[in-house]
Structure formats: structure tokens, C-alpha cells
Amino acid sequence: MIIYSHDAEADRSFFRDVLGYRHVDAGGGWLIFKLPPAEIAVHPGDGSPSHELYFMCDDLEATMAELAAGGVVCTAVSEERWGRLSGFRLPGGSKVGIYEPRHPRAIDLE
Question: I want to staple 97 with a disulfide (CB 3.0 to 4.6 A). Which of 37, 54, 60, 110 is the partner?
């Protein structure tokens, strides 16, 4: 995954310092982050092809409290059929979602 940003250094600092993601330096400050297990879903769409980034969590309120302690302002929680949803903006302006799923999780597959 690559995130294109209007302020890459601020976003790298966010992933390193606020989210606490471990990383390697690929040279010249280009940090590559170790991510938690991931899932991907493909949805039909009528407009231009696009993508979205969501972080999954086990407890949305606890995750939002941890983010708030790091200065992150999250959106109001919405209750969806598939989970409880919130989100925030990265320092570079990109929108990121966080959710507590109500569906079976693919990361639980062996």
C-alpha cells in the first residue's frame, strides 16, 4: 500500500509516533511501516475506480480514546449493518476510516 500525501513527513510521523507502527528506513527518511494483518474487499461502483483505507479494531471507543490521547480528532460514530464506523484525517489531509466489524473477519481464517 502506498499513501500519496500533501505532507508525507507529517503522515510518516503520525504512523510512527501516534499509531506506534514499527518501521524500517528505506533510505533518506523514507519509512516503510509494518502493518497489522489486513483484509481487502472489492465493491461494485458506478463512478471512477477508487479505494478507501479503513483500520479495523476490536473496540472502537477504546481505539478512539487512544487516538484522542495522541491529539487525533475522530468523527462521530455511525452504526452500520457491517460495523461501527468512525474516521479521522491524516496530517497530510487523507481521510482514513476506523471500524469495529460486525461481520466475520477474514484475518481469523487459518
Answer: 54
